[in-house]
Amino acid sequence: MVEAMQIPVQQIKESKLGQVDFSNLGFGKYFSDHMLEADWENGVWKNVNIRPYQELGFLPALSVLHYSQTIFEGQKAHKDENGNIHIFRPHENWKRMNRSAARMAMPEVPEEIFIDGMKQLIELDKGFIPSGYDESLYIRPFLFATEETLGVKESSSYKFLILTGPVGSYFSAPARIYVEEKFTRAAPGGTGAAKTGGNYAASLLSSAEAKKQGYDQVLWMDALEHKYVQEVGAMNIMFIIGDTIITPDLTDGTILNGITRMSLLDIFKDKGYKVEERRISIDELVAAYEAGQLKEVFGCGTAATISHVKELKYKDLVMEFDVDTMKISADMKKFLLDYKENLHGDPYGWLERV
Ligand SMILES: Cc1ncc(COP(=O)(O)O)c(C=O)c1O
After folding, report:
1. For each of the chain's 354 residues, which pLDDT tens digit applies?
2. Distance, CA 332 to ligand 1 centroid (Å)?
3. Whether residue 305 has its Cβ less than 6 Å from ligand 1
4. Which residue, judged by its Cα, is nearest atom 14 of ligand 1?
5. pTM of the full structure
6. Where exactly are the structural domains of the chain?
7. Of the residues 256, 264, 332, which should be mutated to test ligand 1's pocket, given the most ligand atoms within 8 Å of the CB?
8. What superfamily would CATH give domain 175-340?
9. Residue with the nearest Cα to atom 16 of ligand 1?
């Protein structure tokens, strides 16, 4: 275990900051000057350092390339009006990373490396943090197996890295999604609740097919009965039926425990809304739609905060929604975005100062 520490830094010779077009940031296009790196071998974390973002040298037998023992996180830091930098709920990402690690037979990443290292890295590259509303520094911690072997077993060594890069305001046009009836994302006992690369790899065929058909995403159903709603792409899903906010529960271990999801549930409850975490069948949604009771449908995740759904297709039924009337989720989106920009004074204690 590494104690709270000052991590050694190898500074970049010439910053790439001048190459960033801050008027057109997009997502995942730019990387900050430095990355954090740490290695785990035989039970010990070592080689914790910060160095310029650069290539890593590996041999083709690197086990992650064959058996996908890899996990990651995705989170954001914002610069407020006074230039102060805050990361949104980083300890939740750290805890989730370690839950993913446990499921994937990987070592836990110590808080000193994940949290303190992240803060030191962000401080060093703070020039890359955009200051516009909803613009942020995206943070990508990840851990992967580095043993060079073709044996199918948990690796004896791992590498942990944190990359960061500026990302723009994420305008998400109201989404068109359909219920995926053939493929599934996760089964009970599987890895659905872990943020591991294979879950995403396995979803790409469905998203490519959705795009081909002019849709943005698919709505995953449970793997056993194809009856209960799970989540969407890189977002959890919420519905407002009548006056109740409903989202699939996490008990099967098939859904990612989203940090946006948990934050929204807390705020909704705090504001006095009726909230239910439970199984929701597609039949219940169709019935609510036909009765005029399905008022709002939205995805929630770090990238877009809230992304409204304007069309949900199930078999031959196309359920259409007027996004302009989705007032509760629109207000909540603004509240949470403002919150991350430190415009509310952090009543829930979710902003961690860098
Ligand atoms: C599969 C999946 N579900 C849900 C989410 C939303 O989680 P969060 O709110 O922590 O970004 C994500 C994004 O990380 C995801 O990849």
Report:
1. 445 578 999 999 999 999 999 999 989 999 999 999 999 999 999 999 999 999 999 999 999 999 999 999 999 999 999 999 999 999 999 999 999 999 999 999 999 999 999 999 999 999 999 999 999 999 999 999 999 999 999 999 999 999 999 999 876 789 999 999 999 999 999 999 999 999 999 999 999 999 999 999 999 999 999 999 999 989 999 999 999 999 999 999 999 999 999 999 999 999 999 999 999 999 999 999 999 999 999 999 999 899 999 999 999 999 999 999 999 999 999 999 999 999 999 999 999 999
2. 18
3. no
4. 234
5. 0.95
6. 17-169, 175-340
7. 256
8. D-amino Acid Aminotransferase, subunit A, domain 2 (3.20.10.10)
9. 234
3-state DSSP call for residue 183? coil
Looking at the chain, list the stretches that DSSP marks H as alpha helix, in order from N- to C-terminal side. Answer: 63-67, 90-103, 111, 117-124, 197-201, 204-212, 259-270, 282-290, 327-340
| CB 175 less than 6 A from any atom of ligand 1 | no
194 CB within 6 A, ligand 1: no
Evaluate: CB of 146 within 6 angstroms of ligand 1: no
In short, whether 63's Cβ falls inside 6 Å of ligand 1 is no
What architecture does CATH give domain 17-169?
A: 2-Layer Sandwich (3.30)
Q: How many residues does the chain have?
A: 354
CB 25 within 8 A of CB 19: no
Q: For the chain, what percentages of helix, strand and coil (3-state, to nearest 5) are there? A: 25, 30, 45
